[in-house]
Amino acid sequence: MATTLTETETVASAAPVRMDVEDGIAVIRLNQPGKPVNVISAGLVEAMHGILGRLEAGGEGVRAAVIISEKKGTWIAGADIEQFKDFKGPADGETASREGQKLLNRLERLVIPTVAAIDGAALGGGLETALACTYRIATDSPRTKLGLPEVQLGIIPGAGGTARLPRLIGIAASLDLMLTGKQLDGRRARSQGIVDEVVPVPVLLREAKRAANDLASGKLKPKGARRRGSPKGVENLPGLRGFIFRKARQGVVSKTHGLYPAPLRLLEVVERGLDKPLDAALELEAKAFGELAVTQEARSLVHLFFTSTAAKNDPPVPEGTRPKPVDHVAVVGAGFMGAGIAAVSAESGIEVRLKDVKPEAAAKGLKTARDTLIKRAKRKKLKPYQITALTDRVEATAAYTGFHTADVIVEAVFEDVSLKHGVLKEIESHIGADTVLGSNTSTIPIAELAKASARPENVIGLHFFSPVDKMPLLEIITHPGTAPWVTATSHAYGKKIGKTPIVVNDSPGFYANRILSPYMAEAALLLEEGVSIDDLDRAMTRWGYPVGPITLYDEVGLDVAQKAGKIMAAAFADRMKPSQVIDKMVADGRLGRKNGKGFFTYGDDGKKTGADESVYALIGAAPRKQVSREEIQDRLGLMMVNEAVRTLEEGVLHSARDGDVGAVMGIGFPPFRGGPFWYVDTVGAQDVVARLKKLEQAHGSRFAPAKMLLDHAAGGKKFFPEG
Ligand code: T1G
Asked: Is pLDDT of 339 > 70?
C-alpha cells in the first residue's frame, strides 16, 4: 500500500541511525527523528541490529567503526524513559533490559574495533553504549557530560553498566558515579579512565577516524576492561572490597533512610556480579532492573523527570511570545542571596553587575560571589585561566553605572516593602523599557511592589531559594499586569542559569512559602503540645524530607520565619495562626544558626551539636508527650499537601505539574513521593480526605480538606489521569 507520507510521518519514519562507509571506516550516525535528543528507543535498537548485521557480514571493506551523533548537545541520552510508563510488571523491564544488553553485547563482540565519538550528553544507556565500544573519545565541550544517572529515576543501569563500568575503572570510582548519578565532563571522564581521549569539537570525527585506523592497524592498543573483578588490584582483596561495599551501604542508608530501594539494589548487583562471567552479571542486572522499574519510587521519579523537563520547556505564556536574550544582569543587594544570584548568573556566561549602597558592602558581596564560583570551578577541575574568566564576569559597584545595559535586574535587598519601593524607583531611573525588573522577595505580593513602578508591566517576582547555587528551583511570580515577554524572558533566564523555573500567579507566599508555612506552623504547635524537637525532625526525615522542620527553622532564621509567618497569618487567618513559639524564641534573641542560638546549640565551627533542652521551658511547652511518628507525619505532610491543592484550586498554580516540581525542588518535598499532587494520586484522594477529616475532628478546621480534594475523592479523579 503506497501512500505519500506527511512531513511528520516522513520525519517519524526516518531511521534514527545510518551507516556510511568512508575510506574503510564505517561511520554510524545517530539522529533521532522528531526528538531534540537521541534516546535508545525500540526503533534505534532495531536499526542498530541491522547495522551490526552488516558489519558482522563484512564485505564492505570496513576495518573499523565510529559511532557519532548528528544532534547538537546529545550523543545518546539513554533509554527512552517514556517506555517505562508501559511496564506492567517486573518481566517487562527485565525484557527491555535484556534487549539492551543483547544489542551492546553484539556491539562489543564485533571483530572490528569500534570508537565512540562523544559530543554532548552520553547518559545511562548512552554511556553503556560507549562502554561496549573498544575506544572512547569525548569533546572538551561544556555540553559533553557522561554519567549513569539511573538511580535518580529509581532504577539501576540496565544495559551492562553495572558490570562493565567497575571492570573498567574499578569499584569505588564506579560506585561513586552510579550511586550519585553525577555527570562528568570530558576531561574528568578521561582522568577517571572512562574515556581514552578528549578533543576539541571541530576535530572529533577526524580524530575518531584516526583512532579507528590505528586500532585496526594495531598501532593503538585499547586499555580494555577486565573480564572479571576490578582493574585496581587492591580492590580485589576480600578485606578491602568488603570494606568498600560496607561503607557505601552505610552511606546510602544514612542518606536515604532506606526510602530509595535502587541504590541498595545497585550495590547488591555490582558486588554479586563482579567476579562472575559477564553474562551471569548481566542476568543479575536485568532481574533487578525489571523489579525496580515498576516500584512506586521509580514511577514517582520518572514522573518528576518529565514534569521538570516540561516545566523547563513550556512556560505559561501566549503562543509566539519570544523571550529577549539575557546576557547582562544587574543584582541590587550584595547580601548572601544577591551574591548567590550573581554567582549562578556568571557561571552560565552572563555579565553581572553587583550593586550595594556602600562600596565595602558591594566588595563583600563580590568576594562571596567569587568564592562560590571558585569553589564550584575547582570541583569541576577548571583551569586557572578559566576560573579567572568566570570571576571576571562579576563586577561590584555602589552606583548604577552600566545598569542601562542590563537585560534583567534582580532586586535582592532587605525584605521591607518601603525599602524595596525606593530601590525599584531608583533602578527604574537608570534602565530602559526593555529591561525586566525582577524582585527576589519571598513574601511581599508582586502587585504591591509594582505600585512603585512607572512600568509595572516589567515587574516580576524572581524568587530564588537558599543556598542559591544549590537549590534547583526558580519561582517566577507574575502579577496581573506583568507583560508576557517579561515572563518569557524571566523563564529563559532561569533555564539559562541551570534552574528549573515554574511560573505562578501572585498571592501571599506565592506557591513555595504558601505550602511551607502551614507545615512549619503545625510543627511549632506540636512543640507547644510537648513533642520533642528530635521526634519532630526524625519523623519528617523518615518521611523523606532532607531536614526536619525544626532544623529548617534554625536554617532559614527565626526572624525571617517570624516575618513570613505574620504575613501568611494575616492572609490565611483560618489555618495559619501566628506561632507564639517563634515570637518567644526571637524575643529571647534566638535567630537560629546564623547567630548560633536557636532550637539547637552550635559549636564554635557553627555546626549543630544537639537540641537545646532549655527551649522547652522558654516556649512554655506542655510536659513531654509521645505522639506517633505517623500522626506527626500526617499532621505536617497533609497540611502541606492540602494547601498545595488549594493553590491549584485558586489559580496560584497554572498546573499540578508545576506544583510537584516546585514542592520537590523548592522546599524538599520527598522526591520518591513525586510531589504533593502525584502523592494524592498515588495513595488516593479518598485516603487523603479520610485522614484529613480524622485530623479535623481531632485538631480543628485547619485540616478541613480543600474542595478540589473532596471533588477528586468523590469522583475518583486524578491530577495526572495519564499516570
Ligand atoms: N528518554 C525520553 N525523553 C527524554 C530523555 C530520555 N532518556 N532525555 C531527554 N528527553 C526529552 C525530555 O523529556 C524533553 O522532552 C527533551 O528530551 C529535551 O530534554 C538502559 C534504563 C539529555 C541532558 O536520565 O538528563 O538509560 O519536554 O529539556 O536540557 O541503563 O534531558 O521537549 O518534550 O532535558 O538539553 C538515563 C535524561 C535514562 C538522561 C538534555 N538517562 N535526560 O538536557 O533537554 S535510563 C537520563 C537528561 C537508562 C539504561 C537506563 C536531559 C539531557 P520535551 P531537556 P536538555
From this structure: yes
Q: Quick one: which of 406, 384, 379, 385 has its CA closest to 395?
A: 406
36 pLDDT exceeds 70? Answer: yes
Task: Look up 457 and say whether it is catalytic.
Answer: no
Q: Among 252-266, 318-332, 445-459, 558-572, which is the least confidently predicted range?
A: 558-572
Is the sign of the CA dihedral 717, 718, 719, 720 positive or negative?
negative
> Distance (Å, rounded) from C-alpha 664 to C-alpha 457?
30
CB 122 within 8 A of CB 184: no
Does 77 sit in the ligand 1 pocket, CB within 6 Å?
Answer: yes
Q: In this predicted structure, what is the pLDDT of residue 13?
A: 53
Residue 3's pLDDT band, with cuts at 50, 70 and 90, is: very low
Where residue 6 falls among pLDDT bands split at 50, 70, 90? very low
Write down the pLDDT at residue 233: 87
Q: What is the band of 591 on the pLDDT scale with cuts at 50, 70, 90?
A: very high
Q: Out of 475, 522, 555, 643, pick the active-site residue.
A: 475
Residues 6+ apart with CB under 8 A from 221: none
Is 313 near ligand 1, meaning CB less than 6 Å away? Answer: yes
Q: Give pTM, 2 decimals.
A: 0.94
Between the CA atoms of 659, 662, 667 and 668, what dihedral angle is there, to the nearest 10 degrees? 90
Q: Residue 317 to residues 434, 438, 493, 497, 602: CA-CA distances in angstroms? A: 18, 17, 15, 20, 47
Residue 439, strand partner residues: 411, 461
How many angstroms separate the alpha carbon of residue 27 from the centre of ligand 1?
A: 24
Q: Which helix (H) or strand (E) holds 94?
A: helix 90-108
Calculated CA dihedral for residues 683, 687, 689, 694, nearest 10 degrees: -130
With CA atoms as reference, report the closest residue to 104 among 273, 232, 225, 265. Answer: 225
120 lines ligand 1 (CB under 6 A): no
Cis before 467? omega within 30: yes
Over residues 39-61, the mean pLDDT reads 95
Residue 158 in contact with ligand 1 by CB distance below 6 A: yes
Residue 307 near residue 677 (C-beta atoms within 8 A): no
Asked if residue 497 has its Cβ within 6 Å of ligand 1, the reply is no
Residue nearest to atom 31 of ligand 1 (CA): 77
The number of the ligand 1 atom at minimal distance from the alpha carbon of 77 is 22
| 542 Cα–ligand 1 center, Å | 30
**Nearest atom in ligand 1 to 289's CA:** 21
In angstroms and rounded to an integer, the radius of gyration of the C-alpha atoms of the chain is: 27
If one compares 77 and 13, the residue with the highest pLDDT of the two is 77
> Could you tell me what percent of the chain has a pLDDT over 70?
98
